[in-house]
Design brief:
The chain is about 30% helix and about 20% strand. The protein contains 22 helices and 31 strands.
Length: about 750
């Protein structure tokens, strides 16, 4: 991997021990030839692993003994002539401790320079246009290095040796603060921006992978103003906090969460809020968790050094649009949202959102895999032909398979508008260009209306359509380097089924080559189709209509025009049939009066989970399994009937939610037991966006493990639709190898 300081590290290590030889790149990796006293060679080999640079990753070491030849010293050699060196580009990495110390040192020549970086930190992926990863092929090419930076760049003993973004105030990028009209404001740009934030103003801040919208997280009016202007009614905002002492004041923090927050990747981590924390309520309304990150760039560090403590730091865009990353684009698209613009003149070649993670069941798990992690590969168990997978419609990512590397793109977002589609096209093309791979197959979702499917149809490459939930199963197995077969419990909101219905509560048995649909949730009607997704009260009517002999009168029906929806149900017009677990959560949330309409995906389900107060009940509602034509159905009707009865009897919503979660855990345990009895399998793979529900996930994992099952889950890629491109790609490779049999 280029740009991580491995060759200079080896050089310094060898020179320090007085060893002779060379290090150079080859097509298969790094070749080191070193000679000296055997005891020193052993120590050199030990430290090669123990002291390697923090950004480097060693897949394997092969060693052999050679006849000794005369060497003058130790050198960093050129790549072997005539051989194309296969390299990887590291992700953008948070400010390292050495650079932070220099940044705040008045005696250092980079004192308060907001673009300080070295081999161990700074921008990488977002500034690279093509390989090799050299300055002329990055967005730093317009900043020629001054003599002092040039000296550092060419000195193997300097930590800025071959650091492509290397720069200083003399030769590097610079900051400017502009008002809403685009006029450059004089004075210290950072200090003035801090003053604006203290006044409750919204500042658009250009970072590593795009612009953020920043506002004082303790100012209720300012946060509400940001929501109004951004068009984001309720979805929680992330907060950047000055340091870990402050994080501990507002949130509960485990050792695993601490490690994630302070890591080189510096993701957003979803932490449990402490009661009474004095944040603006509008930051994360009705949610017991808060998305927290620490300052990860020099510019962030300077903002907090200037006196700020807590800043909402959210992607700069209007709701549902991709993040803004270009200066002119920011002035145009953020007009009317931002009061000021703190921007710089280093171009961002690839926009890249912040990564979002959560620590569950002992592991850090990706919810949105992006900055800090992309494009680091997912390591596959087998090699094979190059395959490109287009992903899904929501939380889209693209995956390119090259050898044993699955190169997954950054989070692209929901494919709902032209701007998102353009971003998708750019990322798909860039992955192939950057990693020099020509795919033999393009894989897409079965849904014909997805923009990703329509894009795939335009490609002059053989195509394969893959069922959505099969892709989920294959992704979970692939990231765990599992061959399968396994019992796959796949729970999400929407996936186009092979029978024309909308799947989403599926138990599949199989692997990347193919799968059998062993069981699913009972089909329920969605009146109005997609309209029932954004208006869960419609889904609630559909579930009640199918489940209850007589439609009950419930509070959520008041002041809503239910008659036209009931007419659709009676006439079976504009009805989608679904086995979705996500829609079941939505329907129950609406029946309970928690959310009749939503402003972001999963809002109703989250409200139902939050209502449980962090507990899964000991008692359950009725549930039943039914077998017909060789396939099992988990009946939903009894659950809906019992929820209605509980409401009518005055049961607290918290108790209903706790019982509902317990019911689902019991149902899934029972059907997994049946699948295991039928197949002898004891490995269970869990995938799908519903497993972002912390109560359901942690309870089910624990109970399955206690029952003797081996449970494989997502950690490296999201369990939601952000991970299905990986599954599509590995299925595509099976297809090219002639071992694909689809979903039965």
């Amino acid at each position: 991997m280029q740009g991580v300081g491995f060759r200079p590290f080896v050089y310094r290590l060898a020179v320090g021990y007085g060893l002779k030889g060379f290090i150079r790149n080859t097509a298969s990796g790094v070749l080191i030839e070193v000679q000296g006293i055997p005891s020193l060679l052993e120590e050199f080999t030990r430290r090669l692993l123990s002291d390697r640079p923090p950004l480097s990753h060693i897949e394997a070491i092969e060693a052999s003994t050679l006849a000794c030849v005369v060497e003058e010293g130790f050198v960093i050699g050129d790549s072997i002539s005539g051989v194309g060196v296969e390299t990887l580009i590291p992700p953008d990495i948070a400010l390292c401790s050495d650079c932070r110390r220099e940044l705040l040192d008045p005696a250092d020549r980079r004192f308060r320079y907001p673009f300080i970086n070295c081999t161990n930190c700074g921008p990488r992926y977002t500034i690279v246009e093509r390989l090799p990863y050299d300055r002329p092929f990055t967005s730093m090419r317009s900043f020629p290095m001054c003599p002092e930076c040039e000296r550092e760049y060419h000195d193997p003993l300097d930590r800025r040796f071959h650091a492509q973004p290397n720069a200083c105030p003399v030769c590097g990028p610079s900051l400017a603060l502009l008002d809403a009209a685009g006029t450059i404001l004089q004075g210290d740009a950072v200090a003035e921006a801090v003053a604006f934030l203290r006044q409750g103003l919204i500042v658009a801040l250009k970072g590593l992978g795009g612009f953020h919208l920043a506002v004082d997280a303790g100012n209720e009016d300012a946060v509400r103003r940001l929501r109004e202007r951004k068009g984001r009614e309720a979805k929680p905002f992330a907060v950047m906090m000055r340091d870990m002492e402050l994080v501990g004041r507002y949130c509960e923090v485990s050792e695993g969460e601490l490690a994630a927050l302070t890591s080189a990747q510096a993701p957003i981590v979803l932490l449990k809020k402490k009661k009474g924390a004095a944040l603006a309520f509008a930051v994360a309304p009705g949610n017991d968790r808060l998305g927290v990150m620490l300052p990860y760039t020099p510019l962030h560090t300077l903002l907090f050094d200037g006196g700020t403590d807590l800043l909402v730091m959210t992607s700069a865009n209007f709701s549902e649009e991709p993040i803004v990353h270009d200066n002119e684009e920011a002035m145009l698209r953020l007009k009317g949202i931002a009061d000021a613009f703190l921007m710089h003149n280093r171009p961002i070649y690839l926009k890249c959102d912040d990564s979002v993670t959560v620590h569950l069941s002992g592991e850090l798990r990706q919810i949105r895999r992006s900055r800090g992690y992309v494009p680091a590969p997912i390591y596959l168990k087998e090699t094979g032909p190059a395959v490109l997978a287009a992903g899904g419609e929501l939380k889209n990512t693209v995956t390119l398979l090259k050898g044993t590397h699955a190169l997954m793109s950054q989070h692209i977002g929901d494919m709902k508008n032209y701007e998102a589609y353009r971003h998708f096209e750019h990322v798909a093309a860039h992955l192939q260009h950057l990693f020099q791979a020509v795919p033999e197959l393009v894989v897409h979702d079965l849904h014909p209306a997805y923009l990703t499917t329509q894009w795939a149809m335009k490609q002059s490459v053989p195509l394969l359509g893959v069922q959505h939930h099969h892709a989920h199963l294959a992704a979970c197995l692939a990231e765990n380097r599992e061959d399968g077969p396994a019992i796959g419990l796949i729970l999400d909101g929407t996936g186009y089924g092979t029978d024309g219905t909308i799947w989403g509560g599926e138990l599949l048995i199989g692997d990347a080559s193919g799968a059998e649909r062993f069981a699913s949730l009972e089909l329920m009607p969605l009146p109005g189709g997609d309209a029932a997704v954004v208006q869960p009260w419609r889904a609630a009517l559909g579930y009640l209509y199918r489940s209850c002999a007589d439609l009950p009168e419930l509070p959520f029906m008041k002041e809503r025009r239910i008659e036209p929806v009931l007419e659709l149900l009676q006439k079976r017009v504009n009805i989608a049939e679904t086995s979705s677990c996500g829609r079941l959560f939505d329907a129950v949330a609406a029946i309970c009066g928690l959310r009749g309409e939503i402003t972001y995906e999963g809002e109703a389900a989250i409200a139902l989970m939050q209502a449980a107060g962090g507990r899964v009940g000991s008692q359950a509602f009725r549930s039943a399994l039914h077998r017909e034509n060789g396939r099992w159905t988990i009946l939903v009707s009894p659950i809906v009937q019992d929820v209605v009865a509980a409401l009518q009897q005055g049961m607290a919503i918290s108790d209903i939610s706790q019982r509902f979660h317990r019911t689902l855990v019991n149902c899934f345990r029972q059907i997994i037991d049946k699948a295991s009895s039928a197949t002898g399998l004891k490995t269970v793979a869990l995938s799908g966006g519903v497993f972002q529900n912390t109560l359901l996930f942690e309870t089910l994992v624990l109970e399955l493990q206690n029952a003797g099952y081996r449970v494989v889950t997502h950690a490296l890629v999201p369990s939601n639709d952000g991970g299905i491109s990986l599954g599509q790609a590995v299925i595509g490779r099976k297809y090219l190898k002639g071992s694909y049999r689809g979903v039965r």
